[in-house]
Amino acid sequence: MVNYAGDYGGSNAQANRQAALQRRPTGAIGSSIGLSPTRAVVPRRSSGGGRITASPSGRYSRPAPPPAAAPGPIDPNAFLGADVGYQDQLRQFAKALTDFQSDVTRRQGNINTDFGTSSKALGDQRGLDLKNIETDFGSRGLLRSGLYGTAVGDYEKEYGQRLSELTTNKNQTLAQLLQEGNQFKTQQELQKQAAREAALRRRAEGMGI
Q: 166 is in which domain, residue-wise?
């Protein structure tokens, strides 16, 4: 039996196929011929939504979380309004001021009352003294004399001086009370400022600032 070239149906078909496979190139380095295909590595995403990146060593790691947001600026009024210790101090200051003002009002009333009593007594005494002067000079028939006029004039001058002293003392005492009130308010404002700064300092220390 004659075998024709290229005839793979004869007895040499199996041998011819084996020879063809052996002559098939195995593929050079960098060539895909003769090599099984490779799958490209696709970076996976983390369950938290951040992309997983490769390190220089070829390993994949979860990215670092974003930095925490810096705390916003402190609202002093909002904090101080909720600070129990500071609010208690303010109530104590307010009570002390109310008590002081009540005491000032009482003392002012006493001063005005004393002045009224003293000035009335001085006026009553003036009336009696003038009557006595008149009686004295009248008994001597000197009511129309210059001596009587001089005596009355001297007395009126003395009375005016005594009334002026009473008025001056009253006004000075009231002015002193007003000065005490201003000093008390000034001192309280300094105390309030110190209490405010102390409260804000406690807040800052609590926040680690």
A: 76-199
Is the pLDDT higher at 28 or at 76?
76
User: Which pLDDT does position 158 carry in this prediction?
Assistant: 96
Query: In total, how many domains does the chain have?
Result: 1
Residue 4: both structure tokens together:
């024709």
Which has the closest alpha carbon to 206: 83, 88, 87?
83
3 contacts 11 by C-beta, under 8 angstroms: yes
The angle that helices 84-139 and 146-206 make with each other, rounded to 10 degrees, is 180
Report the alpha-carbon distance of residue 122 to residue 159 in Å, rounded.
8
Distance CA 13, CA 169 (A): 145
Helix (H, G, I), strand (E, B) or coil at 26: coil
Rounded to two decimals, the pTM is: 0.55
Give the integer Cα–Cα distance in Å for 29 and 99.
100
pLDDT tens-digit readout, 125-173: 999 999 999 999 999 999 898 999 999 999 999 999 999 999 999 999 9
Q: Say if 9 falls within a structural domain.
A: no
Is residue 170 one of the residues assigned to a domain? yes
Give domain status of residue 13, yes or no. Answer: no
Per DSSP, helices labelled H in the chain are: 13-23, 76-82, 84-139, 146-206
